[in-house]
Amino acid sequence: MNSQSTIKFSVVVPLYNEEGNVVPLYVRLTQIMTGLEEAYELIFVDDGSKARRRLSPKSTRAIRA
After folding, report:
1. Is 11 helix (H, G, I), strand (E, B) or coil?
2. How many angstroms separate the CA atoms of 17 and 23, rounded?
């Protein structure tokens, strides 16, 4: 799928103290969503987490496939 396709699925993931789970969750969601062969976006929302590594605009980017 290219980024110009109409998005068919939006996955919104609230994160609260999930520092150790973000990367594995992202990898798994990407595998599953890619298998659907439809345009999608993943939206990770930091919900006031106290985790050591906070999500910031520098460490995140928009993902559309």
Report:
1. strand
2. 13
pLDDT tens-place string over residues 24-56:
999 999 999 999 999 999 998 887 767 655 555
* The overall pTM is greater than 0.70: no
DSSP state at residue 34: H
Beta bridge partners of 44: 13
Distance, in Å, from the CA atom of 55 to the CA atom of 10, rounded to the nearest integer, reads 19
The residues spanned by each domain of the chain are 9-64
Q: Quote the Cα angle for 43-2-58, to 5°.
A: 40
